[in-house]
């Protein structure tokens, strides 16, 4: 077709979200309108805005952005185990990055992020020492 098109980052990401939504909708046999997206904890405010804007562009409602370590460690694995409020320190070490998160889990299962930080300390740093 020899036609050139230019896309914004939000448009490309939106196409990816539409593809993921379609695959999930077909598999689950339900229409998906609302999403929770896990992101690396090192994403800055601009990267988070790109995610939010791309979801709006494809008419998906973002319920929540969850930092990846929280999604893996707390939300999926421990949420149902807490009957009372807890404050937890979560860490994720891998792929050359260490991220730490302090979170509160309310007695009703709501998760609130209190603090997040991270440093590049893995990968080659481990190999050199």
Describe the protein.
With 129 residues, the chain is of the alpha+beta class. It has one domain (9-128): Nucleotidyltransferase, domain 5 (2-Layer Sandwich). 36% of the residues lie in helices and 31% in strands. It contains 4 helices and 5 strands. It has helices spanning 9-28, 45-57, 68-75, 124-128; strands spanning 34-39, 61-67, 86-94, 97-105, 111-119. The chain has a 3-stranded antiparallel sheet, covered by helices on one side. It has a two-stranded parallel ribbon with strand order 1-2. α2 (45-57) links the parallel β1 (34-39) and β2 (61-67). α1 crosses α2 (45-57). The longest helix is centred in the first third of the chain and has 20 residues, at 9-28.
Task: Show the helix and strand layout.
Layout: H1 9-28, E1 34-39, H2 45-57, E2 61-67, H3 68-75, E3 86-94, E4 97-105, E5 111-119, H4 124-128
Parallel strand pairs: 1-2
Antiparallel strand pairs: 3-4, 4-5
Strand-residue fraction? 25-35%
Low-confidence spans:
none
Strand order of the largest sheet: 3-4-5
Task: Output the helix-strand order.
Answer: HEHEHEEEH
- How far is it from the N-terminal to the C-terminal residue, by CA? 53 Å
- Major sheet description: 3 strands, antiparallel
The number of domains is 1
Structural class: alpha+beta
Q: What's the count of strands?
A: 5
Shape: globular
What percent of the residues sit in helical stretches (DSSP H or I)? Answer: 25-40%
Overall mean confidence score, pLDDT: 77
CATH C-level category: Alpha Beta
What integer value in Å does the Rg equal? 18 Å
Q: Give the oligomeric state of the chains in this entry, treating copies of one chain as homo and distinct chains as hetero.
A: single chain
């Amino acid at each position: 077709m020899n036609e050139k098109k230019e896309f914004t980052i939000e448009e490309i990401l939106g196409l990816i979200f539409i593809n993921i939504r379609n695959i999930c909708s077909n598999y689950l046999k339900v229409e998906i309108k609302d999403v929770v997206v896990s992101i690396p904890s090192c994403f800055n405010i601009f990267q988070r805005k790109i995610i939010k804007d791309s979801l709006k562009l494809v008419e998906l409602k973002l319920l929540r952005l969850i930092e990846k370590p929280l999604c893996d460690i707390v939300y999926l694995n421990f949420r149902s185990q807490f009957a009372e409020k807890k404050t937890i320190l979560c860490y994720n070490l891998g792929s050359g990055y260490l991220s730490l998160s302090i979170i509160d889990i309310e007695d009703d299962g709501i998760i609130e992020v209190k603090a997040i930080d991270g440093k590049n300390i893995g990968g080659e740093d481990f190999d050199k020492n």
